[in-house]
């Protein structure tokens, strides 16, 4: 695959066009997406126009935008040649450079060594530089923190790595915990027994697991307690050995709860702590244990911290713009 110059040499009218040729027409269909939605996404975000001509795409626009569009198209086509799919999130990830990097950062990630998490139902890849560093930290550190806004894949990637390590026999069980802190509702006022009151708080963890493990197998693993999903308070007094332990929404853990949780780490275990410092639901005057842990554990061997920003959001692109708007408003209020 390569870029072919228009023939004959471009006239003043077509000098703003670049032709990109793709050898496999079937892959080109996947590259364009259903109803050309992937091309529409590129056109909208890069201010270019893309027209299909046989097995070529004609990109129209300013020189810099054309070059960027061609880089993204080539990188996504490379994914398809390697047998990987292209979804809206992959297009958005290629378009946005992580951590304020130059626009080519994401494209080069697709061409470098692959970082892939294999589970029962699907394989998962980090889409931004911060996500890639986070996944490497999950495999390389006994205690890893992922801190940043919603939609950046902190919990999703942690659960994916947990499932992968469980499948490969590196750990014997998976334990997922969350502080059961009310965000506008009181547990006592919710209907049902304790499990029915708690389960809504745990639902995001169930959702992530369902993405990686077939339903019947997941139900059996939970029944046999190879996978546990429980409120943070249920961790007290336990020593968690040969387990992959994830604490989600850690900004809602008090200082005492955080210390209790971190000291549960047993032989052969890994711990991941995820949180968003902008979404603390603790009562007024109660300090978040997440911020305290950052301060106390900074520089401790075996502990890693990965920080995410709006650039790492892999949900709907509008989510990233919402987060950026809130960040600007917070900065103006200071």
Description:
With 334 residues, this protein is an alpha/beta fold. The protein has helices at 25-32, 37-46, 63-81, 88-95, 105-111, 129-140, 154-167, 194-212, 215-223, 255-262, 289-297, 317-333, and strands at residues 2-4, 17-21, 49-53, 56-60, 117-118, 123-124, 143-147, 173-178, 227-231, 243-247, 270-275, 303-307. The chain has a 6-stranded parallel sheet with strand order 9-8-10-11-7-12, sandwiched between helices. Helix 1 (25-32) crosses helix 3 (63-81), helix 2 runs parallel beside helix 4 (88-95) and helix 6 runs parallel beside helix 7 (154-167). The chain is globular, with a radius of gyration of 23 Å.
Give a summary of the structure in a few sentences.
With 334 residues, the chain is of the alpha/beta class. The protein is built from 12 helices and 12 strands. Strand 3 and strand 4 form a beta hairpin.
Salient structural properties:
single chain; six-stranded parallel sheet; 12 helices; 334 residues; 42% helix; 12 strands; four-stranded antiparallel sheet; alpha/beta
Task: Describe the protein's topology.
Layout: E1 2-4, E2 17-21, H1 25-32, H2 37-46, E3 49-53, E4 56-60, H3 63-81, H4 88-95, H5 105-111, E5 117-118, E6 123-124, H6 129-140, E7 143-147, H7 154-167, E8 173-178, H8 194-212, H9 215-223, E9 227-231, E10 243-247, H10 255-262, E11 270-275, H11 289-297, E12 303-307, H12 317-333
Parallel strand pairs: 7-11, 7-12, 8-9, 8-10, 10-11
Antiparallel strand pairs: 1-2, 2-4, 3-4, 5-6
Helix pairs in contact: 1-3, 2-4, 3-4, 3-5, 6-7, 7-8, 10-11
């Amino acid at each position: 695959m390569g870029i072919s110059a228009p023939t004959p040499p471009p006239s003043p009218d077509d000098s703003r066009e670049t032709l990109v040729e793709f050898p496999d027409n079937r892959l080109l269909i996947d590259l364009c997406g259903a109803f050309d939605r992937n091309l529409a996404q590129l056109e909208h975000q890069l201010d270019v126009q893309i027209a299909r001509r046989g097995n070529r795409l004609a990109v129209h626009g300013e020189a810099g935008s054309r070059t960027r569009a061609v880089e993204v198209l080539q990188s996504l086509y490379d994914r398809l040649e390697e047998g990987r799919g292209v979804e809206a999130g992959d297009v958005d990830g290629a378009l946005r450079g992580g951590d304020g990097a130059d626009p080519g950062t994401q494209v080069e990630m697709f061409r470098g060594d692959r970082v892939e998490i294999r589970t029962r139902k699907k394989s998962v890849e980090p889409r931004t530089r911060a996500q890639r560093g986070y996944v490497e930290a999950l495999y390389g550190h006994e205690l890893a923190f992922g801190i940043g806004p919603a939609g950046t894949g902190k919990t999703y990637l942690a659960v994916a790595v947990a499932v992968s390590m469980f499948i490969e026999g590196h750990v014997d069980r998976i334990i997922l915990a969350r502080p059961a802190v009310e965000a506008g509702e009181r547990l006592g006022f919710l209907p049902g027994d304790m499990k029915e009151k708690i389960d809504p708080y745990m639902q995001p963890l169930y959702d992530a697991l369902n993405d990686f493990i077939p339903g019947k197998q997941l139900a059996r693993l939970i029944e046999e307690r190879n996978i546990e999903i429980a409120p943070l308070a249920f961790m007290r007094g336990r020593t968690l050995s040969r387990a992959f332990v994830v604490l989600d929404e850690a900004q809602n853990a008090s200082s005492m709860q955080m210390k209790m949780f971190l000291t549960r780490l047993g032989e052969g275990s890994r711990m991941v702590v995820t949180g968003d410092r902008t979404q603390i639901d603790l009562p007024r005057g109660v300090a978040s244990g997440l911020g305290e842990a950052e301060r106390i554990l900074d520089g401790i061997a075996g502990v890693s911290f990965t920080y995410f920003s709006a650039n790492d959001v892999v949900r709907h692109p509008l989510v990233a713009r919402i987060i950026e708007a809130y960040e600007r408003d917070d900065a103006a209020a200071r």
